[in-house]
Sequence to fold (147 residues):
Amino acid sequence: MNIFRRPLLTSIGIAVAILSGSIAAQGLDQLKDITRGSGLGGAASSLGSLSSITSGSTGNAAGIIDYCVKNNYLSGGSASSVKDQLMEKTTGAGDQPAESNPDYISGARGIVTGSSGQSVDLSMAGLKGKAVKKACEKILDQAKSML
Fold:
């Protein structure tokens, strides 16, 4: 009976490896648009693909702004002020502070999560600084409309 299990397990392992490789490739293809181009023009024109991945919540937007300020993609009191105002609208779980909100936590790690569940990790090494800066500016503009 062990003779039949080993080939079956091997086949399942190969299928899982192929499927996970396919999923990873889809994620990388999504990011190719962001990282394509050598200058600001290429990065900025490819940010159109991020328009469908705008922040889906006040907590995530606040976290992204926090991430962008800490990593010098956004500066000035204006960004911090917007973040603070969003934090007032964001609630944590139970009696927890807004900083414990899962959307805020993922945003503070650089993960933009859209309302449809799509996400882009701005902290990925392959993303160019100018593209991330444009994404941060886009989220900041969106956040202002949430106030």
User: Anything to note?
Assistant: The longest helix spans residues 2-35. Residues 15-48 have pLDDT under 50 and may be disordered. The CA atoms of residues 47 and 111 lie 16 Å apart.
